[in-house]
Design brief:
heterodimer; A: about 290 residues; alpha+beta; four-stranded antiparallel sheet; about 25% strand; B: about 160 residues; five-stranded mixed sheet; 5 helices; about 30% helix; elongated
């Protein structure tokens, strides 16, 4: 059956395809092509854009055959995940999930099982979708991103990297070559709550840290703001005083600019964010070691 | 470094449903279109091309994924299984789906077969919530999934029984 791809059907625009086998080759092509190229890892975010021509790179750099990129490793403080670590492989790795439990809460909420089989951790971070789970989770965990170019590598705090929705802070000749995910300490527990209707609309993620004097509650929001953002609350003494917490949360969220549009007013988004925050806090509280 | 220019056709060699085949495609052609147009395997459906509907589901080297979100050139040297290529190892699944009137228009059927076959191959517990979560991979607009869920649970239960 002949298809007239010029006029009948929306398919990707013509593109040149590169298949590098080393990170050095990747950054070499990026140095030449710059903004005209896009990195193809899992493709679960990029291919939909290409299929509808919402993105028309002149070149695709397929990194799936790059053999010298780190898979997963860790030092004392961080789990380090390279650019081809698939979301599903993390879920299958119990020893990994023990050291980064927030990943175990966030990843099952991403997409569907088949997209998780291909989609990568680094790819999701690099895409910086303001609705996505992984950028929010890495932000709450306080992680970093490694950016590689033909001039070397540099490390960037995730808060700085997620500068704008869909427009993260990296140059056109750089790619995300690894993420550094802080390993959970015994006094930390985690929560992740999401509201979705078909696709994800809003999420809240929590890191609860117990100190001698009380708790630090670090709460991140995504989907209701311009980009993922974090606030920190403190609760004194044993346990969480939910009324005091609600009051503090209310005050802090009044200073946040929730998205306002004709369909969904900012007051709704604010109340949704608070609701999710409470759910995530309750989850983190329940997950704590029994006192 | 392999480089394919935009307007060049490239020969991709792969194994599809047990046969060694070759496709001649532009780099921008996705695997679903490559299988359909070059090999005539129309049981791989194209629905949304956004990775949402799952009508294009295939196995690549045993892993279930969206054929519409993979480039055909990426499948070089790989083993692809489409719904048409799932053999008699899933006869029990086909029988159960028929028995429970699982399909109406059938557009989602190829995708459902791939998703369910892949899940069942891991000998899972027959757990209804788990089946429903697994079926989020595929959109069915006709049936409300009820027959599929029953059929898949039946098969999971039967397969777990000692011989």
């Amino acid at each position: 059956m002949a298809i007239d791809s010029e006029t009948d059907i929306m398919k990707p625009a013509p593109l040149t395809y590169y298949q590098p086998e080393t990170l050095a080759e990747v950054v070499e092509v990026l140095a030449t092509e710059g903004d005209a190229a896009r990195i193809l890892a899992g493709g679960q975010s990029l291919m939909p854009l290409l299929n509808e021509r919402r993105c028309r790179p002149k070149a695709l750099i397929d990194i799936n055959m790059v053999t010298d990129s780190v898979s997963t490793s860790h030092d004392e403080e961080n789990l380090i995940a390279g650019p081809l670590v698939r979301q599903s492989e993390v879920l299958d790795n119990k020893s990994l999930l023990e050291v980064v439990p927030l990943l175990g809460l966030a990843i099952p909420l991403i997409g569907v099982p088949q997209t998780r089989n291909r989609g990568t951790l680094c790819g999701s971070i690099a895409y910086a979708d303001p609705m996505a789970e992984l950028p929010l989770a890495l932000l709450v965990a306080g992680g970093q991103v490694t950016l590689a170019s033909n001039e070397g590598t540099r490390q960037v705090e995730i808060d700085h990297f997620l500068d704008k929705a869909f427009a993260p802070n990296l140059t056109s000749t750089e790619l995300v070559s690894a993420i550094h995910w802080p390993i959970a300490t015994p006094n930390q527990s985690w929560g992740f709550a999401e509201y979705s209707a078909g696709s994800t609309l809003a999420s809240a993620a929590v890191r609860l840290t117990k100190y001698a004097r009380g708790d630090e509650i670090r709460i991140g929001f995504s989907g209701t703001l311009d980009r993922p953002r974090v606030i920190t609350l403190h609760s004194e003494g044993e346990g969480i005083d939910t009324r005091y917490l609600a009051h503090q949360l209310q005050m802090l969220t009044e200073s946040m600019r929730f998205i306002d549009d004709p369909e969904v007013p900012s007051t709704y988004r604010c109340s949704l964010a608070m609701n999710l925050a409470h759910k995530a806090i309750a989850q983190a509280n329940t997950a704590r070691e029994p006192q | 470094m392999k480089t394919i220019n935009a307007n060049d056709r490239h020969v991709v060699r792969l194994n599809v449903d047990g046969r060694d085949v070759s496709l001649s495609v532009e780099p921008r052609t996705n695997l679903a279109d490559g299988l359909r147009e070059e090999l005539g395997i129309t049981s791989v459906r194209v629905g949304c091309e956004q990775g949402i509907c799952g009508a294009c589901s295939v196995l690549i080297d045993g892993v279930s994924q969206r054929a519409c979100l993979t480039l055909a050139v990426q499948a070089n040297g790989q083993v692809v299984t489409t719904a048409a290529g799932l053999g008699d190892e899933i006869d029990d699944l086909r029988d159960a789906l028929q028995h429970h009137f699982a399909f109406q228009c059938g557009f989602c059927a190829s995708g459902i077969l791939i998703t369910a076959a892949s899940w069942l191959a891991n000998s899972p517990e027959p757990d209804e919530m788990e089946v429903r979560r697994m079926l989020t991979d595929n959109m069915c607009r006709c049936t409300g999934y009820a027959g599929m869920v029953k059929a898949i649970l039946d098969v999971a239960t039967q397969r777990r029984k000692p011989d």
